[in-house]
Amino acid sequence: MQAAPMGMAAPMANYGQAGYAQATPLAAAGPGSANPFAKTQQVTIPTELGGTIIGRGGERINRIRDDSGAHIVLEPTQPGQEERIITISGTEQQIHMAQYLLQQCVRSSLPQQGGATGPGGPGMREMRGPIGGRFR
């Protein structure tokens, strides 16, 4: 099973027609299992984003689990490891929702670009440009 990178959007060529990473059936999803439609998907994140996804006291990851209905497990960090594996299990819809919520969590943690920081801030000076225009 190949893990899909998380954070910045990967090229669509690495994904299926719907734009989602391919999911593979869980071993436990055989005949007689509780959910015959259950699948599993693994994604990777940079190790330093693990705390961002988990949140204070597990608050954020628990909210993602509740909102998506998926079972989500973050692999423990190993010394020198640059990436962390997240395993998401559930129905296809639950997996897609969990992936979306995880991506939103990662995106919200990235520094914002191009903010106008007050009338004399660097963003405003760049927008005024050489003609010295003003914003009101």
Summarize the structure in words.
With 136 residues, the protein is of the alpha+beta class. It has one domain (4-131): K Homology domain, type 1 (Ribosomal Protein S8, Chain: A, domain 1). 29% of the residues lie in helices and 18% in strands. It contains 4 helices and 5 strands, in the order E-E-E-H-H-E-E-H-H. It has helices at 50-54, 59-68, 92-109, 122-128; strands at 4-5, 24-25, 39-46, 71-74, 83-90. Strands 1, 2, 3, 4 and 5 form a 5-stranded mixed β-sheet that branches. Strand 4 (71-74) and strand 5 (83-90) form a beta hairpin. It starts with a strand and ends in an 8-residue tail after the last helix. Residues 7-32 and 127-136 have low confidence and may be disordered. Residues 37-107 form the K Homology domain. It holds the Pfam family KH_1. GO terms for molecular function: RNA binding.
By DSSP, the count of extended strands is: 5
**DSSP strand content:** 15-25%
The fourth-level CATH homologous superfamily is K Homology domain, type 1
CATH architecture: 2-Layer Sandwich
Q: How large is the count of helical segments?
A: 4
Task: Kindly report the average pLDDT value.
Answer: 72
Task: Using the CA coordinates, give the radius of gyration.
Answer: 20 Å
Oligomeric grouping of the chains = single chain
N-to-C order of helices and strands: EEEHHEEHH
Biggest beta-sheet profile: 5 strands, mixed
